[in-house]
Amino acid sequence: MALTNLVVLIAAIIVVLILIILAFAKQYKKVGPNEVLIISGGRKRTIVEPDGTKLKIGYRMHIGGGTFVMPLIERAQILPLEVLTVTIKTPEVLTAQGVHIIAEAAAQVKVGSDEHAIRMAAEQFLATGTQGIKEVSFHILEGRMRATIGASTVEQIYKNREEFNNKVMEESSDDFARMGLTILSFALKDISDAQGYLESLGKPRIAQVRAEAAVAEAEANKEATIKAAHARKEGDIVKFQAEADIAAASRDYEIKRAEFQAAINQKKAQADLTYEIERHRMNQQLKKEEYRVRLIEKEEAIKVEERESLRKEQELEATVKKAADAKKYQIQTESEAESYKLEQEAKGRAVAKKLEGDAEAEAMRKKAEAWAQYNQAAIYEMLVEKLPELARAVSEPLSKVDKIVIVGGGQDGSLGASKISGEVARVLAQLPPIIETLGGVDLKKLVEKLPELKTQKSQEEKGSSGIPESNT
Fold it and tell me: Are 115 and 36 in contact (CB under 8 A)?
């Protein structure tokens, strides 16, 4: 319960503080630079008028900005300082000549900017504000316009409007100053009358102006015609002169242009020649640099190759030469062993060949002895034994043929196969003459003597074996 009461008390205090702050904030009044804040109430203040008079007033002023207004004690009111436009239109007013005219004008008035003027305006217009200022200004200016119109003629008014404006302002400025106002400008906009006085006043002048205008127009037309003719004449002269000048200028231009073009072409040719010379020089220099670069690259490549060759030589020294030395030693050792082996084999083959030669020599000797003992019958027998080998040698090429294609037969109607066997027989038939030509042996006679030779051989074998020949 006590906690609830405390919360309610705190909330009430906060609400009261908020209300007080809002009340004080509401009492802070602000105005723009075109307004003055009049705060009345509170203690009185002593002020000094421009003429030195001291007055006590119960209000204070604040131009633009803001200030705090004490609640229940002070009251704030606003007095405008902006420019107000007042339009004045008088009823018919008699001029100094007794002519009734109506005048329209406009003026700009405002409250003065100094404190004295503001106090004067506040004392008289604080309650009525802008509307009160306009009404008072209208009546003052209307009265001053009436007075000025009554003291002037119509001609003076419409001919000297600036003088009329200045006179009205001078006569009304004191009235405005006594109320804290100032008139910034005044301008007579229009004057008119109901009797047509102003219109009649302008008719003679209008007629005169019209006559003068007609005469002036005729004179102007005459002068214009004369001047037009002279102008055309002068224009033609000027035109022809201008054309001649244009032609001369064109001629001079073309000459100058040709000279300039020739100079340009010459400079261009010089520039092109200079460019070509410079280009060739640069190309030569570039080629020199390229040659120098290639030379440097070759030198560097040679150095790299030398280093690479040295590296490969070292690598070869480390990998190949040592292995080659080892291989060389191995091959040398193996070669010595092989030489020794071959030497021993050669010695063995020499001994074998010697023994073989001795054996062949012995065989040849014995064969020679046998040949010496051979008679004609034995020679014939050996020749006969070799005949099958000769036949086999002749027919051997045919045995190596894989395939024989026979196309048709011979002219004599014989078949191809029989012709092949006939060819073999024909070749064999040619052997006896060849043997007879080469060895001097007639195979035909040899065949006829075969029985006799066999008998002789058998007798020789019997005689050599020591068996007595029996008589049959």
Answer: no
**12 and 91 co-located in one domain:** no
Per the structure block, which two tokens stand in for 449? 């003597």
CA distance 43 to 355: 174
144: CATH: 3.30.479.30
Q: pLDDT at position 259, please?
A: 84
Which residues have a Cβ under 8 Å from the Cβ of 58 and sit 6 or more positions away? Answer: 40, 41, 42, 43, 44, 45
Q: State pLDDT tens for residues 353-398.
A: 777 777 777 776 776 666 555 555 566 666 666 667 766 776 666 6
Same domain, 177 and 144: yes
Q: Which residues contact 408 (CB under 8 A, 6 or more apart)?
A: 416
C-beta separation of 54 from 47 below 8 A: yes
Residue 36's domain comprises 4-79
The string of pLDDT tens digits covering residues 275-310 is: 888 888 888 888 888 888 888 888 888 888 888 878
Domain boundary among 79, 100, 135: 79
108 and 88 within one domain: yes
- Do 126 and 77 contact (CB within 8 A), yes or no? yes
Asked whether residue 411 is domain-assigned, the answer is no
- Which pLDDT belongs to residue 468? 46
- Domains contained in the chain, number: 3
Q: Which of 19, 54, 79 is the last residue in one of the domains?
A: 79
Element (H, E) at 133: helix 129-150
Q: How far apart, in whole angstroms, are the C-alpha atoms of residue 292 and residue 270?
A: 32
Quick one: which H or E segment has residue 1? none
